[in-house]
Amino acid sequence: MSFDPTPLRWIELDLPHPEDPERKLTLKTDGPFALRKWYRFPDSDEKIELHVDLRTPKGGLLGCLACGHKELFTRKVFNVTLGISIVVVAAILVLVLPQPMSYIALAVAALLDFILYHVGKEEVACYACDAVHRGFDKTPKHPRFDRTIAERIKFGEKAVMGSPMRKGGTADAPEPEH
């Protein structure tokens, strides 16, 4: 058994508000095992019970802690405003700079975008309730967003297309083919 000196710290869980799904309640605790089984929303009498049994012994996720659904997906946390700003500045530089320098501006913009994407953190979100889980252990790995699973959850049996639900959810499932 090896000792990992970097503890899991500061997990965040964004839960949808029971009365207004656009609003989120953010819980921030010192690791996944510091979460309690239930919380009250600050401006409501609603109590939410967390599915803490869906944590792995290492602090990973087998399902959504908010609703208990086992279909989750991983996405990058990316500042969209920063990304668009890089593209806009590069576009302006292409118009202003002479020809060989404009290619350099485009290459620098592409490199910055590439670096920001690969340095960015990941978060795990729930298909069913849109709860967001940050800082949990990366194992088991959940694949990136799969529109067919989202449609199957949203429309149920009415979904014309869509991947069937997996018995164990998305934990350690393969990446979508598209």
Overall description:
The chain is built from three helices and seven strands. It is an alpha+beta fold. The longest helix has 21 residues, at 99-119. The model has no long low-confidence stretch (mean pLDDT 84).
Task: Identify the notable features of this structure and list them briefly.
two-stranded antiparallel sheet, alpha+beta, 178 residues, elongated, 17% strand
- Largest beta sheet, briefly? 5 strands, antiparallel
Order of helices and strands: EEEEEHHEEH
How helical, in percent, are the residues? 25-40%
Main sheet: strand order: 2-1-7-6-5
Give the uncertain stretches in residue-range form: none
Overall form: elongated
Distance between the termini: 39 Å
Strand runs, count? 7
What's the total helix number? 3
In round numbers, the mean pLDDT is: 84
Percent strand equals 15-25%
**What radius of gyration results from the CA coordinates?**
20 Å
* SS-derived structural category: alpha+beta
* Whole-number total of structural domains: 2
